[in-house]
Amino acid sequence: MAEHTAREIFITGLKNAHAMENQALSIMKPQLARVEHYPEIADRLEAHIRETNGQIKRLDEILVSLSESSSSLKDMALSMTGKMAALGHTVAGDEILKNTMANFAFEHFEIAAYRSLIAIAEYADLPALAVPLRASLEEEWAMAKWLDDNIVSVTTKFLALSEAGASAKV
Ligand code: MG
Ligand code: FE
Prior knowledge:
Blueprint: H1 6-34, H2 39-65, H3 79-89, H4 95-123, H5 127-163
Magnesium ion (MG) is lined by residues 21, 24, 52, 55, 110, 140.
């Protein structure tokens, strides 16, 4: 008898991903509330918060289909993501840059999590459940790509605002 079946490992992974997505919301929502001078970032954060709510719904539905009530989930704080969130919330002159870096790291953490979950679903012979996970993975790739494409322009804008003496640079 296996100590843990692939199905059990999958369920644990789904619950961890559920906690990760709630962590994502707790990182992005305060950023969206604070951002003033970077409407392009505000728009993208708003869109990704919407996507994240959909990702949580997908995870809920998968857990329900496996007869695991997601309402009984108690999301545990992931220490790594928690530390990144703390970094992101640091109130510093270069907050927008720190947040951009933290978001870039977080999206890649999510990409790794979904790629692993998809591999587990396939190993556990639950390929239908990998389909919604692939949809979430695509959204994480797109967000990571957007951040990658915007790191330089955000930095350049931050430099211009700082040199112009803008008091609020977030
Ligand atoms: Mg996500
Ligand atoms: Fe994400």
